[in-house]
Structures are given as C-alpha cells and as structure tokens.
Amino acid sequence: MAQNLSRKILAAHLAKPSEMIPGEEIYLKVDQTLTHDINAVMTYLAFEQIGLDRTQVETSVSYLDHNLLYLDHKTPDDHIYLQSVAKKYGVYVSRPGNGICHAVHVARFGAPGKLSMGGDSHTPHGGSIGMMCIGVGGMDIATAMTGVPMRLKMPQIIKVNLTGKLRPGCNAKEVILEMLRRNTVKGGFGKIYEYVGPGAATLEVSDRVTITNMGAELGATTSIFPADEMVRKFMKAEGREDQFVELGPDEGCTYDGEIEINLSELEPLIACPHQPDNVTTIREVEKKKVQQVLIGGCTNGSYKDIAKAAMVLKGCHVHEDVSCTCAISSKQIYKQLLRDGYIEMLIDAGVRLLELACGPCCAIGQSPATDGVAVRTTNRNFKGRAGNPTAKVYLVSPESAAACAVTGTFSTAEEVMGDEVRELEAIEEPDFYPIDDSQLIRPLPPEEAKKVEIVRGPNIAPLPVPDAPGQHLECKVSLKTVDNITTDDITPASAEFSSMRSNIPFMSQYCYHRYDPTFAARAKELGKSIIIGGDNYGQGSSREHAAINPMYLGVKAVIAKSMARIHKGNLVNHGIIPMIFEDPADYDRIDQMDDLEIENLRDQMAEREVTVTDRTKGFSFRARLELSDDELEVILCGGQLRYLKNELRQMGVIE
Ligand code: F3S
C-alpha cells in the first residue's frame, strides 16, 4: 500500500506491531539521542541512577552549546560533569565552540530515515533531511538511552504542498510564519507536517531547517521533508554522501489533511509580540523604532542566511541607535563565511559577532533595553524570553533583520537594496563545507569508559524523585494562570537562571519568578497544591525543569483547558497529574487559594475521569486524564524513574 514518508519511517521503527491509527499509542525504536547543556544534567543524573553502564542507542550526543557565558562556577561545573558523564556512558560530546546542537547534529550525525529523540523542542530541525526527529523531555532521553522504546501517540500526518518559488528578499522563514499565521501555536497538536511538492524541491536543506525547526512553534510533533537531491547535495557537502538514501512519499499515498502554500505569493512577514503566531506583513506592521537586532540562532543561522544578511548590509552601516549582533550556528559555517568574505562585510557594517552558541536566543546575554523593540531571526518571542519582560520581540528572516538594522525600523531587504535584491537569489549553500570535527569528543571503548570518574562540582545536586499519589488529595490552588503559559514563564531563561538548572532545591525558588514572583514561596508553604491552567498550558521549550521545580514545591496536579505535548509528558515523568477540564467553563469558577478535594484519587485515575470538589465555592467539576495505560502507571508508581527501574528489573536488565 502506498505510504507517505512519515508513516514509512515510523513503520520501520515500530518496536511492537501497530496499525498506526492516529491517537493510538505506538512504540518506537530510537536510533539517536541529543541533549544540550542547560537541560541535560537531569537526564544524565537519571541515567546514572538507572544503573546501566552505556547508552544503548546507536548514537548519543551531548552538546555544550547554550550557556557559554560562565558567570560563575555553576555552568563550568555543569560542563565538566556533562563531559565526564558522557565519557563514562559512551556519549559523544560536542564541545563549546563547535556550534548549536541542531545545526551540528544535522550536519555531522543526521541521516535520512533515522529516528532521533532530542531533549529540546527544536529537535525537528533534522526533519530537513528526511529524518524523523522528535523533541521530548530529559527523562524521556534517559529512558531512550536504556534501549526502551519511545512511546508516542500516533500523530495525524498533514501534507503541506508547496508550489512556486520564494522571491528574492523572502526566506523560508516566510513559509513557517505563514503556517503559524494560518494554524496558530496550537494548530499542530498531534500532527506531523510533511512538506512536499515542486516548491519543496526548490528549497535547500538550510531553508528546510528553518521550517522544520520552527514547526515546534505550531505545537507539532515534528515536521519533515523528503530526502531528495537537495539532501544528497547537503550530505555530499558534509562528506557523508554514503549515508544518503533517497526517501519520499509513495505515489498515490494518502494523508490526514492537506495545506497548500504558493511560495511565489509570500512576502516578508513578521511575528509580533508575544506569540510566534501573531503574524502580519512587514509592509503592514506599525513602524517602530528598533533598538536591537539579532541575526542567527538555530532557526536562521545557516551559511545562506548569514550570507544574505551580509549582502543586505554590504556598503551600509548598522543604524546608530541599533545594537546588532550575529550568532552563527556552527564552526564550519563560520569558516565558510570567513573564506567567502561575508564575515568581513558583517564587521564592516558594524555587526558584533557572538560565540557560536545559542546565547541571546535563550536570554544568555544581549537582553534588550527597557521597553526595547528587538528584531530577531530566532523562533520564540514570548514575553521575557529575551531576558527582559518589558521588551517587545519581533521575529523575521535574516534578510529582513539586516534591513531593520540598517534603517532602524521594520523594513524589508527590498526597501534597502532596491532592484539589487535580486542578487540574493544567487547565494546558495557551498558544494563542500570546511569539515572540522576536532571539537567533537568521541565515545571511549567500553573497557576504558568504565574507569572514568564522574566529576561532580557543587552545582550538581541530586535529582529529586516524586512520591506516588495517595488516595485522597486535599489542597489549595497555589496558582491560576492565563492561556498559553510557556515553559519560559514557569522556568525563566537567562544566563543566571540557566546555570541554576542542575540544582533543583536552589532553582525551585525561582519557579514562575517572572510570571508571579510570590508563587514559589506560597507553594512551598502550602506543602502540596494544585495549579489551574488555561489553554495550551506549558507550550514552548522542552525544559523539564518546568515540571521538576513545581513537583519539588509540592504541586500534585495541573488542571488546564489544554496542555502542550512535551510539557504534559514531563509532568507525567515527574509525577504531577495532568488533568483537562471536561467543561472549560469551570476554569472561570475557580480562584487562586480555593480549597480543592479529590476523593479516591487513585481509583478515579484508573477511570481517566476525576471529580474535583471546590470546597471554597461549593461545587464539583469533572476533569479528564488523557493518559495511556503506561503513562497512568508511571504516575501511579511515582514518576518515570521509579517506573523504568521496575520495568528494567523485571526484564532482568538491572538488578
Ligand atoms: Fe538554542 Fe535558541 Fe535554538 S536556545 S537550540 S538557538 S531555539
């Protein structure tokens, strides 16, 4: 039977036979895992506790790429721990300076048809080369490293038929912003977007990464392109053509839905504060004075992106009121840009080059000024994401960002370059990249690895493990949130906060710090509590600290109108019960500090429906548990670590 590309790859990785019916649980063999420094310490602490002596997947890579601003001892402590633990367990390390995880992973490890799990929501970046890449929480990575299959609710597969060709001055960013404009930040729940058609064939891998990477902002499970001639060119340029396999949808295959986008009709777009789906055209947006521009990041930090930005800036200068920085996504891209003269163009124009790292994208340096308007080529513009809640962050393409840097207001490349904008069309990815893997540390042979001592500085605190829920829960509502709460709201980003992530007792004091600075103390004093959430609770970054910190503060359940996939998984893994209001109107009847009571909790959980009584207001309401049998079991036994160890013991894998 004719199959689409996504079903083909998923079918090839099924660990248990399945009809792969959307909404039903499937189990998948994982080929590769990816972690990065500001989320990974919890992952490896969990893996240590499991007791296996080596990762059980083909390739595991630990990237040190997000927080390279060593403000004090904490981040260097983390990096030394991560480097030593990787050596111990057969994991590659990509050292600081090698580049941003997704860019390096697709270039040096990715291959069509593989299935990769990453402890980062933008892991779908690798879908650009016909690979199935899914973002998950850190505990899921530790689980995958034991060789236990990944469980996933079978997504719907949506065809995105691209026709036409991008006009000069337009970027693949326009495609994903158009997807967000049409489908919103919740539109991708339970879906894989499969990009095909004649327009897709015109996009190079560096264009495709922008689209698959930022599919995370749609809430999608992942996004994927066929492995075609563009992917062959990329793999050849990476010196890995031998790992290329042609992969695409079969003629006459079916999908669960279809979207049409004509690339020729797109014009430069801009996502306005504070959500990536708040999209309009640059032509129509209210012109504002721009204070800061950031070009680069994993979404738009490719060779072609930076070269095009440099061409827009060529012969111009960054406006005197604008601070313009550039974060190129990898060392090899930097070297190629240097060879081709683009770095000089950037420097001449007054652009400040940053480390080859995430940096400002997750508020590690370069925060905008008070009330500052920041224009960024990154993927998120949530309030506070850039490190300053008063800032207004707008998302655009590198071409448009460079134009904004020149004019000091929202502008397009065409407005700056005039007819010369056509020159941008000639810029393509190189035929060969200056490959240099000297910043990669390869896994040690098993016998040598066993002798490695793990280095644990004072910043590395033990991983807290939740208790199993009891039969009776009576507690107050410690927090009631609005819709679209992000994991950045729950666990703030910045150099300072990121460096606390290895120490939960310390970091939990800052839980919800920017949203409600009184929350942590209140939750701690209550001892146990419930959070009431709105729609799309926990969207954004995959950081599981947004579950671990509330768990540590005694949060037993989150009852929301709806919940983002990765965050829901993280809550389950860390023993917090995720519940969905059966009638969303009940949300309006509950207030912070109301007394809630759930009787026979464990028995009710088994029915996937729970009656909650609001003792303060004197009414009861129903909440659903949208959990698989395994997920339910995980919560009932006190989180994924306890569950997994039980499973592995029963299988005789550990003692
Ligand atoms: Fe890094 Fe930002 Fe991408 S934090 S991985 S550059 S989304």
How would you sum up this structure, described in words?
With 655 residues, the chain is of the alpha/beta class. 30% of the residues lie in helices and 18% in strands. The protein has 24 helices and 26 strands. It has a seven-stranded mixed beta barrel with strand order 20-21-22-23-26-25-24. A six-stranded mixed sheet has the order 6-5-2-3-4-19, with helices on both faces. α20 links the parallel β21 (529-533) and β22 (555-560). α2 (37-50) crosses α5, α10 (303-313) crosses α12 (342-348) and α10 packs parallel to α13 (398-407). The longest helix has 16 residues, at 74-89. It is globular, with a radius of gyration of 24 Å. The model has no long low-confidence stretch (mean pLDDT 97).
Short key terms for the protein model shown above:
about 650 residues, alpha/beta, seven-stranded mixed barrel, six-stranded mixed β-sheet, 24 helices, 26 strands, about 20% strand, binds FE3-S4 cluster
In short:
This protein has 655 residues and is an alpha/beta fold. Helix content is 30%, strand content 18%. The strands form six sheets. A seven-stranded mixed β-barrel has the order 20-21-22-23-26-25-24. A six-stranded mixed sheet has the order 6-5-2-3-4-19, with helices on both faces. The protein has a five-stranded parallel sheet with strand order 16-15-14-17-18, covered by helices on one side.
